[in-house]
Structures are given as structure tokens and as C-alpha cells.
TrEMBL record:
GO biological process: fatty acid beta-oxidation using acyl-CoA dehydrogenase
Signal peptide: none
Cofactor(s) the protein requires to work: FAD
Molecular-function annotations in GO: acyl-CoA dehydrogenase activity; flavin adenine dinucleotide binding
Cellular compartments per GO CC: cytoplasm
A Pfam family it matches: Acyl-CoA_dh_1
Domain Acyl-CoA oxidase/dehydrogenase middle: 123-225
InterPro entries, per database record: Acyl-CoA_dehydrogenase (IPR050741), Acyl-CoA_Oxase/DH_mid-dom (IPR006091), Acyl-CoA_Oxase/DH_mid-dom_sf (IPR046373), AcylCo_DH-like_C (IPR036250), AcylCo_DH/oxidase_C (IPR009075), AcylCoA_DH/ox_N (IPR013786), AcylCoA_DH/ox_N_sf (IPR037069), AcylCoA_DH/oxidase_NM_dom_sf (IPR009100)
Domain Acyl-CoA dehydrogenase/oxidase N-terminal: 17-119
Keyword Flavoprotein belongs to the record: yes
Species in which this protein is naturally found: Podospora fimiseda
Designated name of the protein: Acyl-CoA dehydrogenase/oxidase
Subunit structure as annotated in this protein's UniProt entry: Homodimer.
């Protein structure tokens, strides 16, 4: 029996209808809810469309800065359907940036235009199950030249978006020159139509039990998949350059939306702790000491995380994504951890309901937990940030030594000697 989505008070109005129109069972993978198309028409008429392409960096930009989009994306992060309704949903945003920045005119006409018009969807294929993909040099998908074609063999997983029946193009990273002495010149990126012969989608992966239909995260194999050589992006051996150009903005977009999810979780927690029907031990939840501390900490943490995100957005606007890698990495690491902490507090406040389908909290937690792995695990970014910060070691050591030397000069100049604070206090008490 089809479940009545109206029984789920957790959804926003549009999310509720979206869930109902998807339905249940295998039919969900073929669903395309009408409400989504209606929302897209309305959003486009209001000029709220493709806002993620930053002003001054792309000729296709609608005219918003990264800072402005960051503030808008926070609101988008409160709803499941909002990002797609304004054509700002992952992985299409990153894929459109790849095409806008690196694609030639023919590739833009064939794939970028329908993506920007919201007519089709796309998937990004990089991660592989048999290697440690956190180090992209390990990627094994073979891309071999054969006359006017490239032939692809290998497998990918976490191919987000591959389940959608409207997904028509894969952006695929693979190894085209495995013998190149420069490990960062062995990879290339190529555009592969999703209906190309030799592609098999074996399964959709779940995220803590959620399959994200109809979007999905596919495990896909390529067997002698032939793609025209003209589908190569930018040129052979340019894969790392392209991927770095894609992942930076993608990370900050995730962080922007995640701020909204954290705000939504805090809203749910506030509703719960003030619910007059929930009075454990004869008190409202807000009257139990630790609860208001959770609220206060959540408020501080969300506001601090937002500033980290907006700081990265400003740096990107002023100097571009490459110059803002440190700031982007800071947001990428901090924001999901912050949101997960806030969501977990809200779950705890709801008790059993918090881990069930009767609130959005469990699904939000599962979705955001993936961000600590997506676009590179936290540990990779922390190691890189730590390494770069540590480069200041000799500089700061020299500065501190200079300060000590100057202090010694001043002590001599004023005819005093350095004393320990403890001994000074002791003498003054005598």
C-alpha cells in the first residue's frame, strides 16, 4: 500500500509533495515529480537560476558573487528539492563549472546548455572501489586512444546522480598515460553519454540505508566503452588540473548548504524542547539544565561556521578558487562536523522519534556524514593544511627569538632583570 506522505509532518510543503510523487518501490527510480518542474519554472521566472556560477569568473554567470550565493545556498540547504528547483543541485553544479571553464564550444553547446537550462542531469565519476581514491593518483580507469576514439575500461562507484532517468552525461576521470613520469599528468577527463554501449549500472549504493532515489549513487562498470576523441576535456594529461578546478567550488557549495541544514536541525530542536506534550520528569525539556546549553552551543557553532564559509566565499570572489584553497578546506572540514554535532543534539532531544522517519534528522545526518568523505576525506585536507601551516615554523621561531633579544636589550636599558611571576607574588606576600 502506498504510504501517505501527508503523515510525515517533517517535510517542507514541497518536499512532502515530492516524496509522495516519487512513490515507493522500484518505481521511484523512474519518477520525476511534477512539482519539481513547476518549481523550476517559477524559480526561473524570478531570476533564481544557476546562481552558483560566480560573477566575474564565468560569462554564463547570472550575476551573483560567491558571497551572495553562499547566503542563498544556506536557505536551499533547508530543503531536499530547493537546490534542484533553482538548478543549483550537485553534482550538476560542479559539472557545469567544468564545462563552462574547460569545455570547448562544441562541448558547451552539446552538454552545458541543456544542463544550464535544467533539461538534463549529469553524474561525476571519479571514485573507484578497488583503490584508495582519496589519492587520485591511484585511479585505474583506462582511457586508451584508438584512432578517432577513446576506449574506457574499469569501474566507478559513488557516481552520484547516475540513477536519475534524466542523467544523460557522465564526466569521467581516468588514466590515459600511466607511464608518464609525472604522476599528476597521467589522468584525463572525458565526457561519456550515459547511454553509450558497454556501460553497466550494477547497483545503487545506500547511505546509512538511504538510497536517494531517483538521484542515486551508482556502482558502474565500463567494458570497451568507445567515446569520440572530441569528448576529451581540455587535453590529455589535464585531469588533475580540471578536477582541482571542480572540487574547490564543489566543497564550498556543500558547506554553504550544510549551514542551512544545521539551522533546520536547531529549529526542530527548539520546537521539541518547547513542546508542552513532552514533559519528562514533570518538566518541559527546556527546563532541564543541559538542554539550553545545547541550544547556546549550537547557536555559537553555527554562526562561527557560517563566518568560515563566507570568508572562503569572499576570498574566492576576490582572488579565485585556487587562491582560496586554504579557506575552502577550512570550511570543508569544519562545517559538516558542526552540522553533525547540532543534528545529533536535536536527535537526542527527540529521543526515539529522532532516529525514525518521523523527523528529517536521521536523513539529514546520513546525508551530511558523507561530506566528511566526499571531495576528499577530512584527514587529507587537515594533513595538507597542517603541512602548509607548518611551513611558517622557521619564520615564527626567528620572530620569537628576535622578540627575546629585543626584550633582553630593553631589560638592560632600563636596568632591571627578568623575574618569574611566581617569585614576585611570593615576595609581595612577605
Amino acid at each position: 500500500m502506498k504510504e501517505d506522505a501527508s503523515n510525515h509532518p517533517w517535510s517542507t510543503s514541497a518536499d512532502t509533495v515530492f516524496e509522495a510523487q516519487i512513490g515507493v518501490g522500484d518505481a521511484r527510480w523512474e519518477a520525476h515529480p511534477k512539482i519539481l518542474e513547476d518549481l523550476k519554472k517559477k524559480a526561473r521566472s524570478l531570476g533564481l537560476w544557476n546562481m552558483f556560477l560566480p560573477k566575474g569568473h564565468y560569462k554564463e554567470s547570472p550575476g551573483f558573487t560567491n558571497l551572495e550565493y553562499g547566503l542563498m545556498a544556506e536557505w536551499l540547504g533547508k530543503s531536499r528539492v530547493a537546490s534542484e528547483a533553482v538548478n543549483c543541485a550537485a553534482p550538476d553544479t560542479g559539472n557545469m563549472e567544468v564545462l563552462a571553464k574547460y569545455g570547448n564550444e562544441a562541448q558547451k553547446a552539446r552538454w552545458l546548455k541543456p544542463l544550464m537550462d535544467g533539461e538534463i542531469r549529469s553524474a561525476f565519476l571519479m571514485t573507484e572501489p578497488q583503490v584508495a581514491s582519496s589519492d587520485a593518483r591511484n585511479i585505474e580507469m583506462k582511457i586508451e586512444r584508438d584512432g578517432d576514439y577513446y576506449v574506457l575500461n574499469g569501474q566507478k562507484w559513488w557516481s552520484s546522480g547516475a540513477g536519475d532517468p534524466r542523467c544523460q552525461i557522465y564526466i569521467v576521470m581516468g588514466k590515459s598515460d600511466p607511464k608518464n613520469k609525472d604522476p599528476y599528468r597521467q589522468q584525463s577527463v572525458i565526457l561519456v553519454p550515459s547511454n553509450t554501449k558497454g556501460i553497466t549500472i550494477h547497483r545503487m549504493l545506500t547511505v546509512y540505508g538511504y538510497d536517494d532515489a531517483p538521484h542515486g549513487h551508482g556502482h558502474i562498470t565500463f567494458h570497451n566503452v568507445r567515446v569520440p576523441a572530441s569528448n576529451l576535456v581540455l587535453g590529455e594529461g589535464r585531469g588533475f588540473e580540471i578536477i582541482q578546478g571542480r572540487l574547490g567550488p564543489g566543497r564550498i557549495h556543500h558547506a554553504m548548504r550544510t549551514i542551512g541544514a544545521a539551522e533546520r536541525a536547531l529549529e526542530w530542536m527548539l520546537m521539541r524542547i518547547n513542546d508542552p506534550s513532552k514533559t519528562p520528569f514533570g518538566k518541559l525539556l527546556r527546563e532541564h539544565g543541559v538542554i539550553l546549553e545545547w541550544v547556546a552551543k549550537s547557536r555559537i557553532e553555527i554562526d562561527a561556521a557560517r563566518l568560515i564559509v563566507l570568508n572562503a566565499a569572499i576570498k574566492m570572489d576576490e582572488q579565485g578558487p585556487k587562491a582560496a584553497l586554504k579557506e575552502i578546506a577550512q570550511a570543508k572540514v569544519l562545517v559538516p562536523q558542526t552540522a553533525l554535532t547540532v543534528i545529533d543534539r536535536a536527535v537526542q532531544a527527540f529521543g526515539g522519534a529522532g532516529v525514525s522517519q518521523d523527523t528529517p534528522l536521521a536523513g539529514m545526518w546520513a546525508n551530511i556524514r558523507t561530506l566528511r568523505l566526499a571531495d576528499g576525506p577530512d584527514e587529507v585536507h587537515l594533513q595538507q593544511m597542517g603541512r602548509n601551516e607548518n611551513k611558517r615554523g622557521q619564520e615564527v621561531a626567528a620572530k620569537i627569538q628576535a622578540q627575546r633579544s629585543k626584550a633582553a636589550e630593553l631589560l638592560k636599558q632600563y636596568g632591571v632583570t627578568k623575574t618569574e611571576i611566581g617569585s614576585h607574588i611570593s615576595k609581595s606576600k612577605l
